[in-house]
Amino acid sequence: MQAILCAPGAIIARLNPRQKKVNNLRQKTQHLRAAAAPAAAVEASELDFGNYIADKNKAIEQALSDSVPEMYPERLHESMRYSLLAGGKRIRPCLCIAACELMGGTMEVAMPTACALEMIHTMSLIHDDLPSMDNDDFRRGKPTNHKVYGEEMAILAGDALLSHAFEYIGRETPKSVPAERTLRVLVDVGKCVGSEGLVGGQVVDIMSEGADADEVTLETLKYIHAHKTGALLEVSVTSGAILAGAKEEDVERLGKYAQLIGLAFQVVDDILDCTQTSEQLGKTAGKDEAVGKATYPSLVGLEESKKIADDLITEAKELLRDYDPKLAAPLLGLADFIKNRQN
Ligand code: GRG
């Protein structure tokens, strides 16, 4: 999380004119564009990415369903399963499995952690949609958890998914994986969820929302993106690599790849929020503008935002250049998928 993460310092820089900030952003992202101009672009070779994702997603859906059985108290488990099995692109589990396989591991080794990451992601969506947070009625094309099960149950289903995630990694990771690798994954995932990760990003996001969008600095926006969204994507990749027994330099390199796709993911998310319909997104579109949120399109415009996302993805793929193209193809494809996704 270190390289593209800027501590916000002061959350709001007052008297900071919009144009100055736009220029500032252009300057600050210049290095991204400069660095992202390789002699020959790195591409996913010979992989039918559609088939690859379909295969992985089928296995992930089954494993997710098995991970939270229907049991007593029925209503709680139904609520957990409602959101966990509501669809979703399953990007985090796919990243975990693809990184594990690239580093010589297997899908079976990564699957418990892959499921746990999706449990954590799902619980963060359930809590994010609550009336006290974003107050959303739709998610993944369905009524949000609290709309169906009520607020108390939605909070508790999220809590249960969060604790189950850690139990699941510890209990279900195959015993062939050395315990210190599993322990490291548990520590890393815990860190990326807490005050230095997702929760920290959400808090800064909430604190920034009350402010005039013109007064939110680029540093703050980057902090929010890197923590709220990037942290979980990063640990998805690095945990897969760690479980496979990757060398430290590979874990670090893949972590950098993940930081770049993580930022691109959020830039694309900002773009989609103002270009897609609610039907296309499966959640309320246009919310950022409605609540006056600072986003990449609001700061630098739509075209510049697309360019920034493109450059981040190109740079991320460049980091995979030294790996066997066949083995790296899934992570290359996932980077493109993040750039080109429509929801
Ligand atoms: C994690 C303890 C804990 C608390 C949660 C509410 C909260 C704290 C954080 C909010 C995190 C949040 C909602 C981040 C947004 C991340 C994001 C861009 C989600 C959309 O991800 P996709 O596009 O969604 O992968 P699908 O539905 O495809 O899985």
From TrEMBL:
Cofactors demanded by this protein: Mg(2+)
UniProtKB keywords: Isoprene biosynthesis, Magnesium, Metal-binding, Transferase
Family matches, as InterPro entries: Isoprenoid_synthase_dom_sf, Polyprenyl_synt, Polyprenyl_synt_CS, Prenyl_diphosphate_synthase
Pfam families named in the record: polyprenyl_synt
UniProt pathway: Isoprenoid biosynthesis
One MF annotation (Gene Ontology) recorded for this entry: metal ion binding
SUPFAM superfamilies associated with the record: Terpenoid synthases
GO cellular component: cytoplasm
GO BP: isoprenoid biosynthetic process
Family label: Belongs to the FPP/GGPP synthase family.
Name of the protein in question: Geranylgeranyl diphosphate synthase
